[in-house]
C-alpha cells in the first residue's frame, strides 16, 4: 500500500484523507439510517451510542500512539488529538481553552445534520451518542478527562453551532 501512496503529491494525500473521512461519515450514516428505517429511532440510537463509545475509544488510542502522547497528556494532548478525529476532518470545528481551564470543542457546521435536513429527515438526536463518543475518545487520550455537553440536539443552548462540548480534568483527579 505504501508504494501506491508514495506516488501521490502532498495535496493529493491531504485530499485522500478528507475523502476517507467523508467515506467514514457516509458509512456511519448509511448503517444508522438502515437500522432507523428497520427498527425505529430508539433502537438505532441505542446501537449508535454503543458503537460510538467503542469506536471512539479505539480511534483515541490510535491517535494517542500516533502523536506519541504520554500516558497522561491532559487537555493539551486532547487538543492535539481532537482535530484528527474523522468527524473533525469533515466538519468545521473550533477548539479553545476556557477561563476555568477547560477545553471547549465546537462543531460549527455538522455534515450529518445538514444531510438529514437535505433528505427531509428529522435531525439526529445526537446528544447521548456525542456524549458516548467524545467521553470515550477523551478517556482514551487521558483517563482523567471528563466530557460534558454544552449544546447538542435536542438540547440546543447555543444556536451558533451544531454542538459544543467541554472537557476538563477534575481537581481531585490525579495520574494513577
Structural description of this entry:
This protein is an alpha+beta fold and 176 residues long. The chain has one domain (2-168): Muramoyl-pentapeptide Carboxypeptidase, domain 2 (2-Layer Sandwich), CATH 3.30.1380. The chain is 55% helix and 15% strand. It has helices at residues 2-6, 10-39, 41-66, 74-81, 86-90, 111-118, 127-141; strands at 92-97, 103-109, 146-152, 163-168. Strands 1-2-4-3 form a four-stranded antiparallel beta sheet. Helix 2 runs antiparallel to helix 3 and helix 3 packs parallel to helix 7 (127-141).
Give a count of the beta strands, DSSP E runs of length 2 or more.
4
Strand content: 5-15%
Mean pLDDT: 93
Q: Number of helical runs? A: 7
Helix coverage percent of residues?
Answer: 55-70%
Derived structural class: alpha+beta
- Termini separation comes to 39 Å
Question: Could you say how many structural domains there are in total?
Answer: 1
* Second rung of CATH, namely the architecture: 2-Layer Sandwich
Low-confidence stretches: none
CATH class label: Alpha Beta
Largest sheet: 4 strands, antiparallel
Mind telling me the C-alpha Rg? 17 Å
Order of helices and strands: HHHHHEEHHEE
Under CATH, the topology can be stated as Muramoyl-pentapeptide Carboxypeptidase, domain 2
The main sheet orders its strands as: 1-2-4-3
Task: Tell me, briefly, the overall form.
Answer: globular
